[in-house]
Backbone:
């Protein structure tokens, strides 16, 4: 089935707009002479809804782009791998600490996407981690998560 | 005049202090570096270094950040000319004739002209800044909440109008950015808004993770999908000095590019990217032989390089005099002011005269440093361009993570950065530009504050925005832009000049 890409985007914005309108109302819109906390959240939602409705109308005119065509010829798997690696890194950073969590992330980035030979990847991963740690922790006195090494 | 000269003298006293000289050098060096390297631009570099500026004086930090911005304008041309890939967005147009000159064995004069026209325009823009900023700040003192609100509306509309792609998409991004900027405690009632009971969100979303995500991470995710091919000019570069004929052909384009760039830089929503394209288009129109453009015309290098550097200087005016950032880079600079407890605006020139004039004077110094850096170090930049992207992007991501973490010492910000990185990647896929979102994010809370104040002062009378001349003019201009975007003829013209801002 051919899915209209811009219609998907318009649906996303309309959902966000609906959420903002409800959230703005719950926060309290107030009045024109005494605007409440939700005043701009509410009107922001209304504006997004109007723009998204315009997008929805435009998306059915002419020759709409399909969702699949946006990723035609692209290596979307690389995007997924890098995003997953970054998320895993963020999760493990507090428990493992900077010095233990960073080299595996660097190795994944250096090896999985467009492989760098091991003899280069390992020293770069370790070297970059140590240099960044030294500059931040020692030179700039910024506290990095220490993990079990702390 | 004597007043300004005395102030400039005071500024040089600040700029020439050893620490500030070092900060200026580091700034222009990093700026040139990120300008040279495709895939990392001044926005990512400034976000990354924002936390570092906290450890020094406000002068040193802001001088360094400013140096990164105008330094990147210089560096971007090197990559455009030698590799045919713009080092940063404002140098896209330099590829057209610069790379053709390089292919014809004239890489040296192209690089030389890019550096020299940047220097001339950058210096002239600073001189203009010296005279325009004090005059505008005197006018800006009379601005009330209604004027500020309307000016911000105009800025966001103008940015949406000039950004590439459908104007509706830009308006959605600007509005969504504005709402994201409201996350956290309401500045008037202290009521938590859109925080989902997460303590980390009570202070709002940070500018650094948002920008690093939308620009740094999203740029990497977009680049790794496809292999970046690079065709670095291998031949020896030779003499960098342009010939007498080159100067004759370029003198007027440099002048026109400087004036146009400076004016477009001042406009809220304008900036270096738009300026470089507009200057190129203008020169083609002025040329007796427009067919030469795109085939190695030196005016095609001189005019856009002059324009983007002049725009970089002009962009400081709305920030310094009104406290309103006209583009994303200036929004980051505003962030640097705020972290140091300073508020740019009409009173800055009287309350922080040393800082203001110190920054202006540091730009003179920085321009000289850039000329010295760009001409003899071309060989080093060429070597750097040979660094493959599969080695570069893991380092960019590592620096982004570290920069984001260091800004607040908070792992939550890394999640925010990754989230906005994915969102930014999808935005690029669906044809949404991230720049209006960032400007909306920065201006959102200021806009809300001024709107609420204006409404309270006028007791809810919306006509208050139209009875004040400056406010009315801004709103009418914004409305005219929106209407004009729907007219087919103007829409085609807009599409021809519409460009991505930032990078």
Residues:
């Amino acid at each position: 089935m051919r899915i209209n890409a811009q219609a998907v985007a318009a649906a996303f914005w309309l959902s966000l707009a609906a959420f903002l309108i409800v959230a703005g109302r719950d926060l309290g819109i107030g009045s024109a002479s005494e605007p409440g906390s939700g005043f701009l959240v509410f009107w922001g939602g209304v504006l997004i809804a109007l723009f998204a409705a315009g997008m929805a109308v435009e998306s059915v005119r002419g020759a709409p782009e399909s969702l699949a065509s946006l990723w035609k010829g692209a290596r979307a798997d690389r995007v997924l791998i890098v995003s997953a690696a970054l998320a895993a890194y963020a999760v493990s950073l507090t428990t493992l600490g900077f010095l233990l969590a960073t080299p595996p992330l660097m190795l994944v980035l250096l090896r999985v996407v467009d492989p760098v030979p091991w003899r280069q990847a390992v020293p770069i991963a370790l070297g970059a981690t140590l240099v960044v740690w030294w500059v931040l922790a020692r030179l700039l006195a910024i506290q990095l998560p220490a993990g079990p090494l702390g | 005049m004597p007043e300004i000269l005395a102030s400039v003298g005071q500024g040089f006293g600040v700029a020439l202090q050893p620490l500030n000289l070092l900060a200026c050098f580091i700034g222009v060096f990093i700026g040139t570096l990120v300008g040279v390297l495709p895939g990392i631009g001044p926005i990512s570099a400034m976000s990354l270094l924002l936390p570092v500026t906290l450890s020094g004086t406000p002068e040193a930090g802001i001088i360094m950040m400013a140096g990164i911005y105008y330094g990147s304008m210089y560096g971007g041309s090197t990559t455009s000319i030698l590799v045919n890939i713009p080092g940063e967005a404002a140098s896209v147009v330099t590829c057209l004739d610069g790379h053709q000159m390089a292919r014809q064995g004239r890489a040296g004069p192209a690089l030389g002209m890019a550096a020299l026209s940047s220097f001339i325009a950058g210096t002239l823009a600073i001189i203009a800044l010296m005279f325009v900023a004090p005059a505008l700040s005197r006018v800006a003192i009379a601005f009330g909440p209604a004027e500020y609100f309307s000016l911000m509306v105009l800025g966001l509309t103008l940015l949406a109008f000039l950004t590439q792609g459908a104007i509706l998409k830009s308006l959605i991004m600007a509005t969504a950015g504005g709402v994201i900027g409201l996350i956290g405690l309401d500045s008037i009632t202290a009521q938590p808004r859109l925080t989902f009971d997460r303590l980390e969100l009570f202070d709002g979303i940070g500018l650094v993770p948002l920008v690093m995500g939308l620009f740094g991470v999203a740029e990497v995710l977009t680049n790794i999908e496809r292999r970046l091919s690079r065709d670095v000019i291998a031949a020896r570069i030779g003499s960098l000095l342009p010939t007498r004929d080159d100067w004759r052909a370029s003198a007027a384009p440099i002048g026109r590019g400087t004036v146009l760039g400076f004016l477009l830089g001042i406009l809220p929503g304008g900036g270096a990217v738009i300026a470089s394209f507009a200057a190129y288009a203008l020169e083609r129109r002025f040329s007796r032989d427009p067919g030469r453009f795109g085939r190695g015309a030196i005016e095609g290098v001189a005019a856009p390089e002059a324009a983007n550097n002049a725009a970089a200087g002009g962009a400081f005016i709305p920030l310094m005099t009104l406290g309103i950032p006209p583009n994303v880079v200036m929004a980051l600079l505003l962030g640097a002011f705020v972290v140091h407890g300073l508020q740019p605006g009409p009173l800055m020139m009287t309350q922080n005269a040393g800082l203001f004039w110190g920054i202006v004077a540091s730009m003179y110094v920085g321009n000289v440093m850039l000329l010295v850096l760009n001409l003899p170090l071309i060989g080093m930049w060429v070597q750097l361009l040979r660094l493959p992207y599969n080695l570069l992007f893991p380092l960019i991501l590592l620096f982004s993570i570290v920069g984001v973490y260091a800004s607040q010492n908070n792992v939550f910000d890394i999640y925010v950065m990754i989230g906005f990185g994915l969102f930014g990647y999808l935005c690029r896929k669906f044809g949404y530009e991230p720049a209006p979102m960032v400007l909306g994010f920065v201006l959102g809370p200021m806009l809300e504050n001024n709107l609420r104040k204006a409404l309270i002062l006028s007791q809810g009378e919306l006509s208050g925005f139209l009875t004040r001349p400056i406010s009315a003019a801004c709103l009418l201009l914004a409305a005219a832009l929106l209407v004009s975007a729907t007219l087919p003829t103007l829409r085609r013209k807009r599409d021809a000049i519409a460009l991505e801002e930032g990078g």
